[in-house]
Amino acid sequence: MKERIDILGAGLSGLAAATILAKAGKEVHVHEIRKDSGARFDGDFQGIENWTSETDFFEEMKTWGLEPEEFKSNAFDIIDLIHPDDVITNPVTSGTAFRVVERGTDEHCIDQGFKRMAISAGAKIHYEVKVNPNDCDIVAAGPKDSSAIAFGEIFHTDHPNHVAFQLNDKLAPGAYSYLIIIDGIGLICTCLWRKQKKSGRYLNETIAWYESNYELNRIPIKRVGGKGDFSLPEKYIHENKIYVGEAGGLQDFMWGFGMRYAITSGVLAAQSILDQCDYEVEVRKKLVPLIKTSAINRFLMNRIGDRGFKLVARYWMRDQKKNGDGLNFMKWVYQPGFLRKSLWPLVKLSMLRKKKLKDGRLVYRMPFRKPLKRDLWDPSQKANYIGEQWNEVRKGGASLSFSESDS
Ligand SMILES: Cc1cc2nc3c(=O)[nH]c(=O)nc-3n(C[C@H](O)[C@H](O)[C@H](O)COP(=O)(O)OP(=O)(O)OC[C@H]3O[C@@H](n4cnc5c(N)ncnc54)[C@H](O)[C@@H]3O)c2cc1C
Q: How far apart are the first and last CA of the chain?
């Protein structure tokens, strides 16, 4: 068994693997191109979901020896579900539906929590270095291409903690927007699952919508964003390198909730190196069925507009009434039932494109979809004002950590 393990990327998947391996006594070196863990993000809130498994994710993390207390998190059991016709209903669960964490380089961020776990287990992290991926055992370098992007604004607010999730094909082409407020800091984000020019106008219009419907007293701080890479590789171990997290295409095609897959795959890679399991087998058993189902759901979502979104929202609430729990619907969405499974050949053929990556891997990836005619509309007066307000804030030194050229 190899004694020294090299990992490319000090994000969630790489650091999860590093912690388990270092705890087992391996000499672990993590090589990170950026100056710190979490530097890919800039203080945006993300949700760790609790619907792809019956096991609470933090409990699962503890069984692996990972400590969720190392970073700040806020558990939610209720959200505002905003239908495309602006009706707001409330899916609610008796347990934890998801937890909001912050991504970035501040001490309380999840990335820094994972960094602390890896270091205290004995791993060495080398920042601002460029190494050859072929010299690494685990590739955990995050997304390469763009299949979709998310674009958001962070602001001060006096609104209490809150999460809202909006299905709206105009404000978030093909996807959804969200509002997250934690302890006086808010994030409004729009996800674009169809490629657009000038994505800022979608964000301005989305902010205008939330401002008109919630008492936010918003004072902009900065704008953030990032890309998601959705693909299914033919193999998860290629030329002796184990691909984890988004580098391995392990991402949720439907909503982009990739953190749970990233951490789980990092753990499985470490366990496989320690001869406790076979990575290829475990990933195919535990994660690939969920990812395939999410791809089938995405295929269906790509075919509907606001009318379809309204049906989804209605069905969700009907399901809650029938089963007494709002999380039941989200769990059902990820279950690979017979009907959805039978769509897989069609999804693979029509939504995914075969691509040979530079490292020689063959993947079936979802390209960034083209815009539709209906994506072009005149911005509202309020959205124009919000755009001008942002330009002023930016001139005053506010940061913009993501732009279309990064996608
Ligand atoms: C705006 C946005 C919102 C999101 N919201 C959610 C959410 O609410 N819930 C959720 O579950 N997921 C969400 N995601 C997805 C989630 O962030 C990712 O799926 C997850 O971080 C992937 O983890 P990873 O370890 O694969 O990559 P990362 O955590 O990004 O880590 C990859 C690391 O590798 C480094 N790296 C890259 N190239 C190299 C190289 N050549 N050499 C060395 N290091 C390298 C990077 O700098 C980075 O530190 C969101 C993503 C974005 C962009």
A: 40
Ligand 1 atom nearest residue 252's Cα: 19
pLDDT of residue 405: 59
Expressed in angstroms and rounded, the spacing between residue 199 Cα and the centre of ligand 1 is 21
| Confidence category of residue 407, pLDDT binned at 50, 70, 90 | low
Evaluate if residue 155 carries a pLDDT over 70.
Answer: yes
Reported as a single tens digit per residue, the pLDDT across 309-353 is 999 999 999 999 999 999 999 999 998 888 888 999 999 999 999
Atom nearest to 191 CA in ligand 1: 1
Cβ atoms 203, 373 nearer than 8 A: no
Could you tell me if 37 and 111 are in contact, meaning their C-beta atoms sit under 8 angstroms apart?
A: yes
Distance (angstroms) between ligand 1 centre and the Cα of 140 equals 9
Rounded Cα distance, 379 and 5, in Å: 52
Q: What is the pLDDT of residues 173-198, one digit of tens each?
A: 999 999 999 999 999 999 998 888 87
Copy the structure tokens of residue 39: 């530097």
> Quick check: CB of 40 below 6 Å from ligand 1?
yes
The pLDDT of residue 406 is above 70: no
Report whether 351 contacts 367 (CB < 8 A): no
For atom 15 of ligand 1, the residue with the nearest CA is 258
Q: Are 124 and 29 in contact (CB under 8 A)?
A: yes
Q: Of the residues 257, 283, 404, 406, which should be mutated to test ligand 1's pocket, given the most ligand atoms within 8 Å of the CB?
A: 257
**What are the CA-CA distances from residue 249 to residues 102, 109, 133, 145, 244 (Å)?**
22, 24, 16, 10, 8
